[in-house]
Design a protein that fits this description.
Layout lengths: L17 H29 L13 H25 L16 H21 L1 H16 L7 H25 L14
């Protein structure tokens, strides 16, 4: 008679190990990781040269993002630890959902293309294309109709323009114009 320490899935492969660890402790691990990442970001932001012309220098936005990220990561970690005892019921290996590797790979490829084409193509055009494609990749298969695509396109245009004008006039930061020279 065969004794198993890990449960077998329907296809005969073992489930457990890393998947079980991240199912139980995933939020805690992610929270600690992002607290460390944001702390490094805040330290690195302080190393940027100070502006001699304006009160707000190049370190301002990385510090704001770092503080917000640290606070959110700390809240995630705290709440995960607090709720861990309540939800510490044994998680079965059957409850672990399979990862949609195709969507993950598509997202990574989209991000890499976006990073490399932003400067030559420009912020507005590259962000419009990237956000629409990313939202389509992440939307459920049954919600990829014409009506949903129009809604995502509207959200894409509004978000892109809000971010562009916020950086251009709010923060006085010029984003890459690329192939278009926009004097807005």
């Amino acid at each position: 008679m065969k004794t198993l320490t890990k449960e077998e899935s329907s296809d005969g492969t073992e489930k457990g190990g890393t998947e079980m660890f991240f199912k139980k402790y995933g939020d805690i691990v992610v929270g600690i990781f992002f607290m460390a990442l944001s702390a490094v970001m805040m330290v690195m932001a302080q190393m940027l040269p100070k502006s001699k012309v304006m009160e707000v220098g190049p370190e301002f936005m990385p510090m704001v993002i770092g503080v917000i990220t640290f606070a959110l990561a700390a809240a995630l970690t705290f709440l995960s630890i607090k709720n861990f005892k309540m939800h510490n019921a044994e998680i079965k290996a059957d409850d672990i959902e399979d990862c949609d590797y195709k969507r993950v790979l598509e997202s990574v490829i989209l991000m890499l293309v976006y990073v490399f084409v932003m400067k030559p193509v420009g912020f507005i055009l590259s962000t419009l294309v990237f956000l629409f494609c990313q939202m389509m990749v992440l939307s459920p298969d049954d919600e990829r109709g014409k009506k949903q695509a129009i809604l995502l396109a509207v959200i894409d245009v509004v978000f892109t323009l809000v971010v562009f004008f916020l950086f251009r006039y709010g923060f006085k930061i010029v984003l890459p114009a690329g192939i278009f020279s926009i004097n807005l």
